[in-house]
Amino acid sequence: MRLWLGNTWVGWLLLLCLGPLQAAPSVDDGAAARALLEKALGYYHDQGDMAFAAFSRQGEFVDHDRYVFVVDTQGVMLASGGPSSALIGRDVSQVLGPDLRKAFKQALKTPEGNGIQQAEYRWQNWADGKIERKHVYFQRVGERILAVGYYQPRASAEQARALLERAATALSTDRNGTLKAINQLQGGFLEDDLYVFVVDMDSRRYLAHGTNLRLLNTDFAKIRDPEGKPVGEPMLALMAREDQGEYQYRWKNPVTGKVEDKHAYLRKVGNLLVAVGYYSP
């Protein structure tokens, strides 16, 4: 339990230190989280610190996995409608390393007049126990920071391209070590619903797969989507003509468990087809 709480607070402090987001959040989740924060800000304007009681119980300030939480500028949790309510009243700044403590103090200099800010960080999802990406909206009001966040099950196209670049570079310098790392879920080659898979274009068989080891050594050319549409053969044909490309198909999202539209980025590294795809809502 202590480890989970510590990671929670490290994640919260990181969100303040990361600054503005580069990628836009999902419209529905983003709008709902921002609306909940705006509602909380209005309530806090009217009630002041008396609002903390309402923020800390299951009610109008909790919306599914979105909830309001409040921290003061000294690092003390003042209110939370989520699992971190167990930390209310605790000064978390004392459990941080010196570098994070210094970064937190810098983040607290954000002027109140800057309005609602956004950031992204990684936090343990209490519903499934996984470390997942979370997007947060927050605003400083005097000596308080009010915030609402939500989990993001889908990575972006930019993140998929970045992961493909890392995997291609690693394979070109250490082929065997990288294949082993991908298959052992190590080396940073698995991020939320993003994963790498690698196919030997000569044998046309999987050499590595970031989520399904049962596919190793199977014939990639015979792979089809859940509706029977060819997936492997078109990708192999494309890579026989080009050094890189893109392909769209339907596939099961390992995070949501649902069959969704997937857009794959492909790269040729020697005789290897390397791919990373992202899922569309």
From TrEMBL:
SMART domains: Cache_2. InterPro entries: Double_Cache_2, sCache_2. It comes from Pseudomonas fluorescens (strain ATCC BAA-477 / NRRL B-23932 / Pf-5). This is Single Cache domain-containing protein. It comes from the Bacteria. Residues 1-23 form the signal peptide. It is found in: Cell membrane. Residues 23-105, 154-233 form the Single Cache domain. The keyword Isomerase does not apply. Keywords: Cell membrane, Membrane, Signal, Transmembrane, Transmembrane helix. Gene3D superfamilies: PAS domain (3.30.450.20). GO terms for cellular component: plasma membrane. It is a multi-pass membrane protein. Its main location: membrane.
